[in-house]
Amino acid sequence: MAPSTTTVSAPQLVVGLLLALTTVAAVSTAESAPAVNTSCVTGSAGAAVSIGYGGARASAGAGMSLGAGVYRATCPRAEEIVRAAVQRAVAADPRMAASLLRLHFHDCFVNGCDGSVLLDDKPPFFVGEKTAVPNANSLRGFEVIDAIKAELERECPETVSCSDLLAIAARDSVVVSGGPSWEVEVGRKDSRTASLQGANTNLPAPTSGVTTLVQKFRNVGLSAKDMVALSGAHTIGKARCTSFSARLSGVGVSTGGAVGASKDLTFLQSLQQLCSGSAGSALAHLDLATPATFDNQYYINLLSGDGLLPSDQELASPGAGAVPGADDDVSSLVALYAFDASVFFEDFAESMLRMGRLAPGGGSSDGEVRMNCRVVNSST
Ligand code: HEM
Protein backbone atom coordinates (compact mmCIF):
# COMPACT_ATOMS: atom_id res chain seq x y z
CA MET A 1 0.00 0.00 0.00
CA ALA A 2 1.26 3.44 -0.79
CA PRO A 3 2.24 5.51 2.21
CA SER A 4 -0.03 8.21 3.49
CA THR A 5 0.78 11.56 1.96
CA THR A 6 -1.64 14.21 2.96
CA THR A 7 1.04 16.85 2.62
CA VAL A 8 -0.35 20.34 2.54
CA SER A 9 1.68 23.40 1.65
CA ALA A 10 1.50 26.32 4.07
CA PRO A 11 -0.64 28.66 1.92
CA GLN A 12 -2.97 25.85 0.97
CA LEU A 13 -3.37 24.89 4.59
CA VAL A 14 -4.15 28.44 5.61
CA VAL A 15 -6.85 28.74 2.96
CA GLY A 16 -8.19 25.33 3.89
CA LEU A 17 -8.20 26.05 7.58
CA LEU A 18 -9.89 29.38 7.23
CA LEU A 19 -12.58 28.04 4.97
CA ALA A 20 -13.05 24.91 6.97
CA LEU A 21 -13.22 26.64 10.30
CA THR A 22 -15.87 29.03 9.07
CA THR A 23 -17.92 26.33 7.49
CA VAL A 24 -17.38 23.04 9.28
CA ALA A 25 -20.03 23.86 11.82
CA ALA A 26 -22.57 24.21 9.05
CA VAL A 27 -21.96 20.73 7.69
CA SER A 28 -23.56 17.67 9.09
CA THR A 29 -21.10 14.81 8.73
CA ALA A 30 -23.55 12.24 9.99
CA GLU A 31 -26.19 12.98 7.36
CA SER A 32 -28.80 10.39 6.69
CA ALA A 33 -26.49 7.40 6.51
CA PRO A 34 -28.07 4.00 6.84
CA ALA A 35 -27.89 2.27 10.22
CA VAL A 36 -24.25 2.04 11.15
CA ASN A 37 -22.63 -0.91 12.83
CA THR A 38 -19.20 -2.30 13.03
CA SER A 39 -17.64 -3.11 9.66
CA CYS A 40 -14.27 -1.50 9.75
CA VAL A 41 -13.10 1.16 7.37
CA THR A 42 -9.45 1.95 7.60
CA GLY A 43 -7.37 4.51 5.89
CA SER A 44 -3.79 5.57 6.07
CA ALA A 45 -4.54 9.29 6.19
CA GLY A 46 -6.50 9.06 9.37
CA ALA A 47 -7.45 6.87 12.24
CA ALA A 48 -9.41 3.74 11.54
CA VAL A 49 -13.05 4.62 11.33
CA SER A 50 -15.97 2.37 11.82
CA ILE A 51 -18.86 2.20 9.44
CA GLY A 52 -21.07 -0.48 8.12
CA TYR A 53 -24.64 -1.23 7.44
CA GLY A 54 -27.25 -2.75 9.66
CA GLY A 55 -27.10 -6.50 9.43
CA ALA A 56 -25.13 -8.71 7.10
CA ARG A 57 -27.23 -7.88 4.10
CA ALA A 58 -28.47 -4.65 2.62
CA SER A 59 -31.25 -4.27 0.17
CA ALA A 60 -30.15 -2.63 -3.04
CA GLY A 61 -33.74 -2.22 -4.14
CA ALA A 62 -35.67 -4.00 -6.85
CA GLY A 63 -35.32 -7.39 -5.22
CA MET A 64 -31.52 -7.37 -5.16
CA SER A 65 -30.03 -8.32 -1.83
CA LEU A 66 -26.39 -7.59 -1.15
CA GLY A 67 -24.22 -8.89 1.63
CA ALA A 68 -20.60 -8.78 2.66
CA GLY A 69 -19.95 -12.50 2.93
CA VAL A 70 -21.85 -13.95 0.00
CA TYR A 71 -18.79 -15.56 -1.63
CA ARG A 72 -17.25 -16.85 1.59
CA ALA A 73 -18.98 -20.20 1.10
CA THR A 74 -19.22 -20.34 -2.69
CA CYS A 75 -15.86 -18.91 -3.70
CA PRO A 76 -13.72 -18.33 -0.62
CA ARG A 77 -10.69 -17.07 -2.54
CA ALA A 78 -12.63 -14.63 -4.73
CA GLU A 79 -11.60 -11.45 -2.93
CA GLU A 80 -8.02 -12.64 -2.57
CA ILE A 81 -7.83 -13.32 -6.32
CA VAL A 82 -9.18 -9.88 -7.19
CA ARG A 83 -6.89 -8.10 -4.73
CA ALA A 84 -3.76 -9.82 -5.97
CA ALA A 85 -4.66 -9.17 -9.60
CA VAL A 86 -5.40 -5.49 -8.94
CA GLN A 87 -2.08 -5.15 -7.15
CA ARG A 88 -0.27 -6.70 -10.12
CA ALA A 89 -2.13 -4.53 -12.64
CA VAL A 90 -1.41 -1.32 -10.73
CA ALA A 91 2.24 -2.27 -10.28
CA ALA A 92 2.47 -2.66 -14.06
CA ASP A 93 0.47 0.52 -14.78
CA PRO A 94 -0.06 2.93 -11.88
CA ARG A 95 -3.00 4.65 -13.64
CA MET A 96 -4.93 1.37 -13.65
CA ALA A 97 -6.17 1.98 -10.09
CA ALA A 98 -8.00 5.09 -11.29
CA SER A 99 -9.32 3.39 -14.40
CA LEU A 100 -10.80 0.47 -12.46
CA LEU A 101 -12.40 2.78 -9.91
CA ARG A 102 -14.04 4.78 -12.69
CA LEU A 103 -15.41 1.63 -14.37
CA HIS A 104 -17.50 0.86 -11.27
CA PHE A 105 -18.90 4.42 -11.26
CA HIS A 106 -19.81 4.28 -14.96
CA ASP A 107 -21.39 0.88 -14.40
CA CYS A 108 -23.54 1.93 -11.45
CA PHE A 109 -24.88 5.16 -12.96
CA VAL A 110 -26.51 3.40 -15.90
CA ASN A 111 -29.40 1.27 -14.70
CA GLY A 112 -27.58 0.25 -11.53
CA CYS A 113 -24.43 -1.76 -10.89
CA ASP A 114 -25.02 -4.62 -13.31
CA GLY A 115 -21.85 -4.94 -15.37
CA SER A 116 -23.57 -3.36 -18.37
CA VAL A 117 -20.58 -1.10 -19.04
CA LEU A 118 -18.47 -4.18 -19.83
CA LEU A 119 -20.62 -5.53 -22.68
CA ASP A 120 -19.08 -5.24 -26.13
CA ASP A 121 -21.00 -3.91 -29.11
CA LYS A 122 -22.06 -6.63 -31.54
CA PRO A 123 -23.21 -4.75 -34.61
CA PRO A 124 -25.83 -4.81 -35.90
CA PHE A 125 -27.50 -6.84 -33.14
CA PHE A 126 -26.31 -5.28 -29.91
CA VAL A 127 -25.22 -1.79 -28.92
CA GLY A 128 -23.51 -1.45 -25.58
CA GLU A 129 -22.31 1.56 -23.60
CA LYS A 130 -18.69 1.68 -24.68
CA THR A 131 -19.29 4.19 -27.47
CA ALA A 132 -21.22 6.62 -25.27
CA VAL A 133 -19.65 10.09 -25.15
CA PRO A 134 -18.34 9.80 -21.56
CA ASN A 135 -16.88 6.33 -22.28
CA ALA A 136 -15.45 6.31 -25.82
CA ASN A 137 -11.66 6.65 -26.00
CA SER A 138 -11.72 7.20 -22.29
CA LEU A 139 -12.73 4.19 -20.20
CA ARG A 140 -9.94 1.69 -19.75
CA GLY A 141 -9.14 -1.43 -17.79
CA PHE A 142 -11.36 -3.87 -19.70
CA GLU A 143 -8.47 -6.29 -20.32
CA VAL A 144 -7.62 -6.30 -16.63
CA ILE A 145 -11.24 -7.17 -15.79
CA ASP A 146 -11.16 -9.94 -18.44
CA ALA A 147 -8.04 -11.45 -16.91
CA ILE A 148 -9.45 -11.37 -13.37
CA LYS A 149 -12.73 -12.85 -14.55
CA ALA A 150 -10.90 -15.68 -16.31
CA GLU A 151 -9.06 -16.45 -13.08
CA LEU A 152 -12.32 -16.40 -11.11
CA GLU A 153 -13.99 -18.70 -13.63
CA ARG A 154 -11.14 -21.21 -13.24
CA GLU A 155 -11.44 -21.07 -9.45
CA CYS A 156 -15.25 -21.20 -9.23
CA PRO A 157 -17.19 -21.20 -12.50
CA GLU A 158 -20.26 -18.98 -12.94
CA THR A 159 -20.18 -17.78 -9.36
CA VAL A 160 -18.74 -14.27 -9.12
CA SER A 161 -20.63 -11.72 -11.20
CA CYS A 162 -18.85 -9.13 -13.33
CA SER A 163 -20.67 -6.35 -11.49
CA ASP A 164 -19.37 -7.65 -8.14
CA LEU A 165 -15.92 -7.97 -9.65
CA LEU A 166 -16.05 -4.25 -10.57
CA ALA A 167 -17.13 -3.31 -7.04
CA ILE A 168 -14.34 -5.33 -5.42
CA ALA A 169 -11.71 -4.11 -7.89
CA ALA A 170 -12.79 -0.49 -7.25
CA ARG A 171 -12.29 -0.92 -3.50
CA ASP A 172 -8.94 -2.64 -3.99
CA SER A 173 -7.82 0.13 -6.34
CA VAL A 174 -8.53 2.72 -3.66
CA VAL A 175 -6.70 0.68 -1.03
CA VAL A 176 -3.65 0.03 -3.19
CA SER A 177 -3.43 3.81 -3.78
CA GLY A 178 -3.38 4.58 -0.04
CA GLY A 179 -7.09 5.26 0.47
CA PRO A 180 -9.66 3.83 2.86
CA SER A 181 -10.90 0.26 2.89
CA TRP A 182 -14.40 -1.05 3.40
CA GLU A 183 -16.22 -4.34 3.22
CA VAL A 184 -17.71 -4.63 -0.25
CA GLU A 185 -21.30 -5.82 -0.40
CA VAL A 186 -21.74 -8.47 -3.08
CA GLY A 187 -24.48 -10.56 -4.65
CA ARG A 188 -25.19 -8.46 -7.76
CA LYS A 189 -26.28 -10.10 -10.97
CA ASP A 190 -25.08 -9.09 -14.42
CA SER A 191 -27.46 -7.58 -16.92
CA ARG A 192 -28.32 -9.00 -20.29
CA THR A 193 -28.82 -5.51 -21.66
CA ALA A 194 -27.05 -2.18 -21.78
CA SER A 195 -28.12 1.38 -22.50
CA LEU A 196 -26.13 3.67 -24.74
CA GLN A 197 -28.70 6.36 -24.17
CA GLY A 198 -28.56 5.90 -20.40
CA ALA A 199 -24.78 6.28 -20.45
CA ASN A 200 -25.07 9.47 -22.47
CA THR A 201 -27.81 10.90 -20.28
CA ASN A 202 -27.00 9.78 -16.74
CA LEU A 203 -23.29 10.34 -16.50
CA PRO A 204 -22.25 13.88 -15.59
CA ALA A 205 -20.16 15.89 -18.04
CA PRO A 206 -16.96 17.73 -17.12
CA THR A 207 -18.64 20.95 -18.23
CA SER A 208 -21.62 20.45 -15.91
CA GLY A 209 -22.33 23.16 -13.38
CA VAL A 210 -22.81 22.23 -9.76
CA THR A 211 -26.62 22.30 -9.98
CA THR A 212 -26.50 19.75 -12.79
CA LEU A 213 -23.98 17.61 -10.92
CA VAL A 214 -26.22 17.51 -7.87
CA GLN A 215 -29.21 16.70 -10.08
CA LYS A 216 -27.45 13.82 -11.88
CA PHE A 217 -26.62 12.21 -8.55
CA ARG A 218 -30.12 12.81 -7.21
CA ASN A 219 -31.53 11.20 -10.36
CA VAL A 220 -29.97 7.90 -9.35
CA GLY A 221 -30.81 8.29 -5.66
CA LEU A 222 -27.55 9.76 -4.35
CA SER A 223 -27.15 13.00 -2.43
CA ALA A 224 -25.13 16.17 -2.95
CA LYS A 225 -22.87 14.92 -0.20
CA ASP A 226 -22.33 11.64 -2.06
CA MET A 227 -21.46 13.71 -5.13
CA VAL A 228 -18.84 15.78 -3.31
CA ALA A 229 -17.34 12.76 -1.51
CA LEU A 230 -17.23 10.56 -4.62
CA SER A 231 -15.71 13.36 -6.69
CA GLY A 232 -12.71 12.89 -4.41
CA ALA A 233 -11.94 9.88 -6.65
CA HIS A 234 -10.33 12.52 -8.86
CA THR A 235 -7.41 12.44 -6.44
CA ILE A 236 -6.00 9.77 -8.76
CA GLY A 237 -5.96 9.30 -12.52
CA LYS A 238 -5.79 11.40 -15.62
CA ALA A 239 -7.97 13.34 -18.03
CA ARG A 240 -7.61 14.28 -21.69
CA CYS A 241 -7.30 17.88 -22.78
CA THR A 242 -10.71 17.62 -24.43
CA SER A 243 -12.19 17.04 -20.96
CA PHE A 244 -10.84 20.24 -19.43
CA SER A 245 -10.45 22.61 -22.39
CA ALA A 246 -13.21 24.82 -20.96
CA ARG A 247 -10.85 25.59 -18.06
CA LEU A 248 -8.38 27.06 -20.51
CA SER A 249 -10.55 29.52 -22.34
CA GLY A 250 -9.61 33.02 -21.31
CA VAL A 251 -6.26 32.08 -19.78
CA GLY A 252 -4.00 35.09 -20.03
CA VAL A 253 -6.88 37.53 -20.10
CA SER A 254 -9.07 38.67 -17.26
CA THR A 255 -11.80 36.05 -16.79
CA GLY A 256 -13.77 37.92 -14.18
CA GLY A 257 -14.69 35.02 -11.96
CA ALA A 258 -15.82 32.58 -14.65
CA VAL A 259 -15.06 28.85 -14.39
CA GLY A 260 -11.86 29.45 -16.32
CA ALA A 261 -10.62 31.94 -13.77
CA SER A 262 -7.96 30.55 -11.47
CA LYS A 263 -6.15 31.87 -8.50
CA ASP A 264 -3.32 29.86 -9.99
CA LEU A 265 -2.73 31.17 -13.47
CA THR A 266 0.57 29.31 -13.76
CA PHE A 267 -1.33 26.05 -13.39
CA LEU A 268 -3.67 26.88 -16.26
CA GLN A 269 -0.86 28.17 -18.43
CA SER A 270 1.06 24.92 -18.01
CA LEU A 271 -2.06 23.01 -19.03
CA GLN A 272 -2.48 25.21 -22.05
CA GLN A 273 1.08 24.45 -23.04
CA LEU A 274 0.49 20.72 -22.60
CA CYS A 275 -2.64 20.79 -24.72
CA SER A 276 -1.56 23.09 -27.52
CA GLY A 277 -0.73 20.91 -30.47
CA SER A 278 -1.89 17.66 -28.87
CA ALA A 279 -5.23 17.48 -30.72
CA GLY A 280 -6.93 17.10 -27.36
CA SER A 281 -5.53 13.70 -26.50
CA ALA A 282 -2.69 14.72 -24.16
CA LEU A 283 -3.25 13.71 -20.55
CA ALA A 284 -2.99 15.71 -17.34
CA HIS A 285 -3.13 14.46 -13.77
CA LEU A 286 -6.47 15.10 -12.12
CA ASP A 287 -4.52 15.87 -8.93
CA LEU A 288 -1.38 17.73 -9.88
CA ALA A 289 0.22 17.49 -6.42
CA THR A 290 -0.08 13.79 -5.46
CA PRO A 291 -1.33 12.21 -8.70
CA ALA A 292 -1.20 8.53 -7.77
CA THR A 293 -2.00 8.72 -4.07
CA PHE A 294 -5.53 8.45 -2.80
CA ASP A 295 -5.67 11.32 -0.31
CA ASN A 296 -7.62 14.55 0.24
CA GLN A 297 -5.29 16.63 -1.92
CA TYR A 298 -8.03 16.94 -4.58
CA TYR A 299 -10.05 19.19 -2.26
CA ILE A 300 -7.00 21.20 -1.24
CA ASN A 301 -6.36 21.78 -4.95
CA LEU A 302 -9.91 23.05 -5.42
CA LEU A 303 -9.41 25.62 -2.67
CA SER A 304 -6.41 27.04 -4.48
CA GLY A 305 -8.09 27.02 -7.91
CA ASP A 306 -6.17 23.99 -9.15
CA GLY A 307 -9.03 21.66 -9.99
CA LEU A 308 -8.48 20.14 -13.42
CA LEU A 309 -11.99 19.59 -14.75
CA PRO A 310 -14.36 22.56 -14.90
CA SER A 311 -16.86 20.40 -12.97
CA ASP A 312 -14.26 19.84 -10.24
CA GLN A 313 -13.47 23.52 -9.81
CA GLU A 314 -17.19 24.30 -9.79
CA LEU A 315 -17.52 22.51 -6.44
CA ALA A 316 -15.50 25.27 -4.79
CA SER A 317 -17.16 28.13 -6.65
CA PRO A 318 -19.05 30.80 -4.69
CA GLY A 319 -22.32 29.58 -6.23
CA ALA A 320 -21.80 26.08 -4.80
CA GLY A 321 -22.83 27.31 -1.36
CA ALA A 322 -26.56 27.03 -1.92
CA VAL A 323 -27.54 24.68 -4.71
CA PRO A 324 -31.26 24.15 -5.27
CA GLY A 325 -32.27 20.71 -4.08
CA ALA A 326 -28.92 20.03 -2.37
CA ASP A 327 -29.20 18.70 1.16
CA ASP A 328 -25.72 19.95 2.03
CA ASP A 329 -23.65 22.99 1.27
CA VAL A 330 -21.30 21.76 -1.47
CA SER A 331 -18.49 24.28 -0.98
CA SER A 332 -18.54 23.71 2.79
CA LEU A 333 -18.04 19.99 2.22
CA VAL A 334 -15.07 20.74 -0.04
CA ALA A 335 -13.53 22.80 2.76
CA LEU A 336 -14.28 20.12 5.32
CA TYR A 337 -12.64 17.36 3.27
CA ALA A 338 -9.63 19.59 2.53
CA PHE A 339 -9.27 20.19 6.24
CA ASP A 340 -9.78 16.64 7.47
CA ALA A 341 -8.67 13.63 5.43
CA SER A 342 -10.19 11.13 7.83
CA VAL A 343 -13.68 12.63 7.44
CA PHE A 344 -13.22 12.42 3.68
CA PHE A 345 -12.13 8.78 3.90
CA GLU A 346 -15.10 7.85 6.02
CA ASP A 347 -17.60 9.66 3.81
CA PHE A 348 -16.02 8.33 0.63
CA ALA A 349 -16.31 4.74 1.84
CA GLU A 350 -19.94 5.26 2.86
CA SER A 351 -20.79 6.84 -0.47
CA MET A 352 -19.07 4.02 -2.37
CA LEU A 353 -21.28 1.56 -0.50
CA ARG A 354 -24.35 3.62 -1.37
CA MET A 355 -23.33 3.87 -5.02
CA GLY A 356 -22.65 0.13 -5.03
CA ARG A 357 -26.24 -0.49 -3.98
CA LEU A 358 -27.77 1.17 -7.04
CA ALA A 359 -29.84 -1.61 -8.46
CA PRO A 360 -31.10 -2.43 -11.94
CA GLY A 361 -34.74 -1.51 -12.42
CA GLY A 362 -35.74 -5.01 -13.46
CA GLY A 363 -34.53 -6.71 -10.28
CA SER A 364 -32.17 -9.65 -9.88
CA SER A 365 -34.46 -12.13 -11.62
CA ASP A 366 -33.42 -10.60 -14.94
CA GLY A 367 -29.74 -11.08 -14.24
CA GLU A 368 -27.11 -13.77 -14.59
CA VAL A 369 -23.49 -14.41 -13.68
CA ARG A 370 -21.74 -13.81 -16.96
CA MET A 371 -18.93 -16.21 -17.84
CA ASN A 372 -17.28 -13.61 -20.03
CA CYS A 373 -17.88 -10.02 -18.95
CA ARG A 374 -18.02 -8.82 -22.56
CA VAL A 375 -20.97 -10.97 -23.70
CA VAL A 376 -24.19 -12.28 -22.22
CA ASN A 377 -24.16 -16.01 -21.52
CA SER A 378 -26.50 -17.31 -24.19
CA SER A 379 -24.27 -15.92 -26.93
CA THR A 380 -20.97 -17.37 -25.66
C1 HEM B 1 -19.06 14.37 -10.28
C2 HEM B 1 -19.13 14.17 -11.55
C3 HEM B 1 -18.02 13.60 -12.38
C4 HEM B 1 -17.60 14.07 -13.58
C5 HEM B 1 -18.19 15.25 -14.34
C6 HEM B 1 -16.51 13.24 -14.00
C7 HEM B 1 -15.84 13.38 -15.20
C8 HEM B 1 -14.64 12.77 -15.49
C9 HEM B 1 -13.86 13.03 -16.68
C10 HEM B 1 -14.27 13.96 -17.81
C11 HEM B 1 -12.73 12.31 -16.59
C12 HEM B 1 -11.58 12.28 -17.60
C13 HEM B 1 -11.94 11.40 -18.78
C14 HEM B 1 -11.01 11.59 -19.93
O1 HEM B 1 -10.53 12.69 -20.16
O2 HEM B 1 -10.76 10.58 -20.64
C15 HEM B 1 -12.78 11.57 -15.36
C16 HEM B 1 -11.82 10.72 -14.90
C17 HEM B 1 -11.93 9.97 -13.77
N1 HEM B 1 -13.05 9.87 -12.96
FE1 HEM B 1 -14.63 11.12 -12.97
N2 HEM B 1 -16.26 12.30 -13.05
C18 HEM B 1 -17.17 12.47 -12.04
C19 HEM B 1 -17.31 11.67 -10.92
C20 HEM B 1 -16.52 10.56 -10.67
C21 HEM B 1 -16.81 9.57 -9.67
C22 HEM B 1 -18.06 9.54 -8.81
C23 HEM B 1 -15.79 8.67 -9.70
C24 HEM B 1 -15.59 7.41 -8.89
C25 HEM B 1 -16.13 7.18 -7.73
C26 HEM B 1 -14.86 9.12 -10.71
C27 HEM B 1 -13.66 8.55 -10.99
C28 HEM B 1 -12.79 8.99 -11.97
C29 HEM B 1 -11.41 8.53 -12.08
C30 HEM B 1 -10.72 7.62 -11.09
C31 HEM B 1 -10.89 9.12 -13.24
C32 HEM B 1 -9.52 8.88 -13.85
C33 HEM B 1 -9.61 7.64 -14.75
C34 HEM B 1 -8.32 7.25 -15.44
O3 HEM B 1 -7.28 7.84 -15.22
O4 HEM B 1 -8.40 6.28 -16.24
N3 HEM B 1 -15.36 10.24 -11.30
N4 HEM B 1 -13.98 11.86 -14.72
TrEMBL record:
Its EC number is 1.11.1.7. Ca(2+) 2 binds at T235, D287, T290, D295. It catalyses: 2 a phenolic donor + H2O2 = 2 a phenolic radical donor + 2 H2O. GO terms for biological process: hydrogen peroxide catabolic process; response to oxidative stress. Heme b binds at H234. The active site is at H106. SUPFAM superfamilies: Heme-dependent peroxidases. The keyword Acetylation does not apply. It is an enzyme of class 1 (oxidoreductase). Its main location: secreted. Gene3D superfamilies: 1.10.520.10, Peroxidase, domain 2. Belongs to the peroxidase family. Ascorbate peroxidase subfamily. This is Peroxidase. It comes from Dichanthelium oligosanthes. The lineage of its organism: Eukaryota, Viridiplantae, Streptophyta, Embryophyta, Tracheophyta.
